[in-house]
């Protein structure tokens, strides 16, 4: 896995203002080596260099999660295959709790923020948060509700609000 993060600027014209060299402490875990209690940085990312994670032998359906327990303020953008593997793991009601609550909060928050920036599709986000039907942690639900309410507020005075409201009513 190469670059697993990117600097997120919602206003593309302001992105240049954020282009500085940062050393970012990264903690990570994998499907095969769940270690959410080890949040000390195991790798430091310097500037815009690619980062190699010593992940061992991962199967094609395994994932890597970076920035455990909200250790560093920032968003993580994964490669598409990794997002799909995370999604599948969350959708498995027997497995999803193996990912710590704080890391699930971060993943849900990152997905919505990346969708808002146009980097990740809202379709993917909503296909993923279907997993909430078996989520029991208030913190994860709280993040999801706030993000969905933000979308509702944006759509409130638009022509598509009725279709949005109907889709919400149909799903309940």
TrEMBL record:
GO terms for cellular component: cytoplasm; extracellular space; membrane. GO terms for biological process: peptide catabolic process; proteolysis. Residues 63-166 form the ERAP1-like C-terminal domain. One of its GO terms (molecular function) is metalloaminopeptidase activity. PANTHER family: AMINOPEPTIDASE-RELATED (PTHR11533:SF253), PROTEASE M1 ZINC METALLOPROTEASE (PTHR11533). Belongs to the peptidase M1 family. This is ERAP1-like C-terminal domain-containing protein. It comes from Parthenolecanium corni.
């Amino acid at each position: 896995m190469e670059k697993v993060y990117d600097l997120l600027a919602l206003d593309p014209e302001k992105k240049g203002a954020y282009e500085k060299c940062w050393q970012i402490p990264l903690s990570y875990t994998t499907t095969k080596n769940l270690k959410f209690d080890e949040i000390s940085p195991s790798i430091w990312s310097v500037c815009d260099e690619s980062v190699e994670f010593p992940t061992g032998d991962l199967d094609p359906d395994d994932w890597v999660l970076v920035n455990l327990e909200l250790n560093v303020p920032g968003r993580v953008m994964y490669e598409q295959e990794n997002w799909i593997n995370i999604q599948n793991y969350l959708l498995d009601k027997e497995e999803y709790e193996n990912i710590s609550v704080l890391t699930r909060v971060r993943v849900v928050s990152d997905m919505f923020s990346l969708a808002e920036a146009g980097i990740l599709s809202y379709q993917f986000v909503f296909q993923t948060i279907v997993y909430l039907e078996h989520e029991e942690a208030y913190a994860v639900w709280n993040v999801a509700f706030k993000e969905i309410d933000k979308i509702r507020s944006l759509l409130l005075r638009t022509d598509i609000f009725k279709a949005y409201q109907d889709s919400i009513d149909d799903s309940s």
